[in-house]
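Action item from last meeting closed. Structure (265 res):
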């Protein structure tokens, strides 16, 4: 490589280490479902943004406010315009995160939400995990290298001090666009060595990496994937209680993050 080609890389590195050394100021919390977000919106007294950052007519929602030294933003896909249900899944997550990063240039993204957990990997209902890595389980492309692209394994931003302070369980998160689990998905989830299964995490990680924003993943277990209860039933039954556990953990994480820089997390 010609010497002048090296220059931007050096500057990039200097910029990255700079951001890692100044206190975190703007946080974006992406939460797919309204029920999951409500306790945090109330806790931090966030206000809905009526002068939207987003394109006119999209259902995407942003709640924002100031808490201690932090600008906190909770963003959501909102309700599907045709069907009126929360826009869960990878497609809307990617779009909302893209638009949000573009507009707010946050220092950190937290994807908070519910997930299925595998009891063979130590998950129980109500546990809140921090994901160490995320990957997809429904993008099977059996062609060399495309196979790895499909899996899209990515590291979460490393936050060893948050893990210690909050005493969090750690596991890998596997993402796909279905709540149920087909035998193909199951094989991929096992190959991903996942403890958790959700519908947004790996998509958030993809966009965050693309736009160079650190991302962490806090996931609360609503249902046991390798248990004997039907997933949808167990999910709906536990959603409200588990959301309370998620709220507690996210709030503690925010308190820990306040006043710190990325390298102290
Ligand atoms: N499988 C996939 N997703 C989820 C899950 C499971 N067993 N339990 N909870 C979830 C999460 C997804 O990320 C969605 O946002 C929502 O809850 C279910 O539609």
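Sequence:
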């Amino acid at each position: 490589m010609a010497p002048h080609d090296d220059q931007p890389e050096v500057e990039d590195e200097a910029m990255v280490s700079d951001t890692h050394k100044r206190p975190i100021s703007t946080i974006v919390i992406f939460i797919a479902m309204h029920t999951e977000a409500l306790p945090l919106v109330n806790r931090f007294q966030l206000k809905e943004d009526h002068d939207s950052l987003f394109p006119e007519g999209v259902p995407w929602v942003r709640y924002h406010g100031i808490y201690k030294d932090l600008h906190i933003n909770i963003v959501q896909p909102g309700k599907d315009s045709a069907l009126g249900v929360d826009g869960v899944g990878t497609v809307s997550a990617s779009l909302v995160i893209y638009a949000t990063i573009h507009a707010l240039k946050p220092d950190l993204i937290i994807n908070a939400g519910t997930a299925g957990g595998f009891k063979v990997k130590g998950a129980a209902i109500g546990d809140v995990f921090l994901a160490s890595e995320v990957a997809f389980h429904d993008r099977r492309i059996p062609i060399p290298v495309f196979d790895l692209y499909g899996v899209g394994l990515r590291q979460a931003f490393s936050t060893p001090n948050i893990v210690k302070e909050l005493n969090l369980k750690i596991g890998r998160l596997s993402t796909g666009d279905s709540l149920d689990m087909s035998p193909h998905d199951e094989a991929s989830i096992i190959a991903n060595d996942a403890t958790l299964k959700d519908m947004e995490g790996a998509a958030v990680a993809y966009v965050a990496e693309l736009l160079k924003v650190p991302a962490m993943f806090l996931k609360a277990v609503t249902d046991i994937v390798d248990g004997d209860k039907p997933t949808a039933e167990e999910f709906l039954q536990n959603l409200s209680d588990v959301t309370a556990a998620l709220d507690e953990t996210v709030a503690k994480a925010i308190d820990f993050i306040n006043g710190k820089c990325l390298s102290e997390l």
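Note appended to the action item: Residues 32-33, 88, 113-116, 179, 197-200, 222-223, 225, 231, 235 surround FMC (CB under 6 Å).
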